Amino acid sequence: MATIDYYFTTLSPWAYLAGLRAEEIAARHGLTVVYKPLDIMALFARTGGTAPADRHPARMDYRNQELRRQVKKAGLPMTFPKPMFWPTNPAPSSYAIIAAQEAGGGDVGKLTHSILRATWAEEKDIGEEAVVQDCLEAAGFDRGLTMSGMLVGAETYARNLEEAVERGVFGSPFYILENGEKFWGQDRLDDMAAHLAGDL
């Protein structure tokens, strides 16, 4: 089955605001979303990006205004100006998503969104194993994947970064279709849908 490769970090507010729209678009076109969580700070360092903490105040002011606008458009709750547990260690949640995708049997889209929602709307620390386990269970996966999936998770997480750099990914969320078309940001999902429909 044809795929949409989805590169993202579990720390991204923009990935959270994407909700499940990529999954809905994929379903309409008979595609499968392949989830590729990665180390966003390492990606920034290798592709000319800047961590939020190091950005000029003018850029952060605009970012915060745009976040408020996009929250209203998405109709999703979000904690402002930033969640209690952000930033945190994204590796445990990323490994869990990778392990769950490998294991199958549950809903990876639901898992991914629940992890993002835990940070941005529920004031939970996704660096904690119990939080990730609850998300796994709610999406139909074995809680034990936080342990059994650590090795494959770590290896794939590192590989996702290398692959992302090679394919021209520089932010989150970032979607690449099999024909090479790229879409950066949750605000480009309508464009991706239009492209898949042959309208763009």
Secondary structure: elements and pairs:
Elements: E1 3-8, H1 13-17, H2 21-28, E2 32-37, H3 40-47, H4 57-74, H5 91-103, H6 108-120, H7 129-138, H8 145-148, H9 150-167, E3 174-177, E4 182-184, H10 189-196
Parallel strand pairs: 1-2
Antiparallel strand pairs: 1-3, 3-4
Structure description:
The chain has about 200 residues and is an alpha+beta fold. It has a single domain (about 5-195), classed as Glutaredoxin. About 50% of the residues lie in helices and about 10% in strands. The protein contains ten helices and four strands. It has helices at about 15, 20-30, 40-45, 55-75, 90-105, 110-120, 130-140, 145-150, 150-165, 190-195; strands at about 5-10, 30-35, 175, 180-185. It has a four-stranded mixed beta sheet. A hairpin with a 4-residue loop joins strand 3 and strand 4 (about 180-185). Helix 5 (about 90-105) packs parallel to helix 7, helix 5 (about 90-105) packs across helix 9 (about 150-165) and helix 6 crosses helix 7 (about 130-140). The longest helix is centred in the first third of the chain and has 18 residues, at about 55-75. The chain is globular. The two termini are about 20 Å apart. The relative contact order is 0.20. The model has no long low-confidence stretch (mean pLDDT about 95).
